[in-house]
Amino acid sequence: MQKLVQGIHQFQTQVFSSHKELFERLDHQDQTPETLFVTCSDSRISPNLITQTQPGELFILRNVGNLIPPYESMGGMAAGIEFAVASLQVKDIIICGHSNCGAMKALLEPGDLEGLPATRAWLAHARSTERIMWESYGHLKGHELLHATVEENVLVQLENLRRHPAVAKAVANGMLHLHAWVYKIETGEVFAFDPARGQYTSITGTAGLGPLDAEHRATDLSI
Fold it and tell me: Which of 19, 66, 91, 197 has the maximum number of C-beta atoms within 10 A of its C-beta?
């Protein structure tokens, strides 16, 4: 806890003071982020650090496994997505998975969820991912299987996202674009799903990627 208190002191004396005008402006105007960034709760993931964005530029939603429950569940994720799209009118939604994801490990090894009933229930939103893995990736093992699961899960969750009414309407009107990303913790690389290739490729070489076609699936391992 002391480390956090020291961090707040450093923020106030060094960071805030050098960005005072930015924070004053943010306080006196409504938020206007252009991007909804959905990612995992994993403590190793820092969306603003990865994307080098300022406060106010990303609307961030996080949960275990970067999952998108059905809109009908009317939970916090549905409310956040609806608010970002219908009220904030974001132009892009990114779902970002990451390497070595504990949630995806648990999906593959459900025995790890013993004593975690709430986590087990939450991961039910990734059952489609689990089914795809056992039906199409039975030849993979260990680290490669986990990587493939991370990639497939992002695509599955994007398909779930498309079914949210506000998202479906905005996408149909050409006002919203959806993107699938995977972040590799150990190298700092980010991979985006390229519909034309049907696979993930380094985002630094694919900055012009258009909207995601959720009908395509990842066909190789790129992380």
Answer: 66
